[in-house]
Amino acid sequence: MIRNHEIDYRIHGEEMQYVEVELDPNETAVAEAGAFMMMDDGIQMDTIFGDGSQQQSGILGKLFSAGKRLLTGESLFMTAYTNVSYGKKRVSFASPYPGKIIPLDLAELGGRVTCQKDAFLCAAKGVSVSIEFQKKLGTGLFGGEGFIMQKLEGDGLAFVHAGGHVAEKVLQAGEVLKVDTGCIVGFTQNVSYDIQFVGGIKNTLFGGEGVFFATLRGPGKVWIQTLPISRLASRVLSYAAPGNRKEEGSILGGLGNLLDGDGYR
Predict the structure, then answer these.
(1) Per-residue model confidence as pLDDT tens digits over 71-124
(2) Is residue 147 part of a domain?
(3) How far is CA 259 from CA 119, 247, 249, 256, 262, in A?
(4) Residue 80 in contact with residue 29, Cβ under 8 Å?
């Protein structure tokens, strides 16, 4: 049995974190495009087809995996960082927006974690990073962010990024947690995931929280984020739209907009 590369790491920072991965000679880490921050001299970068894992053996397996990634807007390729010199070398990967980096030791988590499709940051070479479609009809039609997810498999370390603060919960067998679909970061393989209708005409029309939410049923571990990137983006766009700037106190706020050059045109 071929094990994943065993890497050491340190996570730096508070709100805009980065993870520093330490590689022994010939050890490799893989990452999605855009995650790289810095590295020591002696580390070689290579673009690889897929994630370089043993699970993608054979040309048909690689093409099928690449096709699923392409359908969801992911790149066909990943970048591998290999220590080709003597001694330990370090490579760092940065979080894309404010939040926390979560280390996942897949060997201790049952060998598989399902996470939001944009959550993956980097991993030890050998960890399989693939796309997983939720099979239930309700999840497929109404799941939003939760319909298409990433599946991390193997026995090595992987790192995912979450927005804002992260709550880690352990669900007992049969225990149910109801969550906004965008707030789910990931969950272990024994957790059952589905979409539930909120119900009630007032909730549907005036609730402001969406018509559907996710249900997570134990046993297993789940990670929940306070600031999904979709929520952050919608708030920024709403604030930036002409005429939608909101201040504390509408009359004085409007006057302040005129004075600071952001008045209505």
Answers:
(1) 555 666 789 999 999 999 999 999 998 999 999 999 999 999 999 888 999 999
(2) yes
(3) 41, 13, 15, 5, 7
(4) yes
Give the domain CATH number at 87.
Answer: 3.60.160.10
What pTM value is reported for the model? 0.79
Q: In what order do the strands lie in the sheet with 157-163?
A: 43-49, 77-83, 28-31, 120-124, 157-163, 99-105
Query: Looking at the DSSP assignment, which residues form a beta bridge with residue 21?
Result: 9, 91
Q: Is residue 254 part of a domain?
A: no
The verdict on residue 240 lying in a domain is no
197 vs 55: CA distance, rounded Å: 36
Longest dimension (CA), the chain: 69
**What range defines the domain where residue 183 resides?**
8-227
Residues in the chain, overall count: 265
> What is the number of domains present in the chain?
1
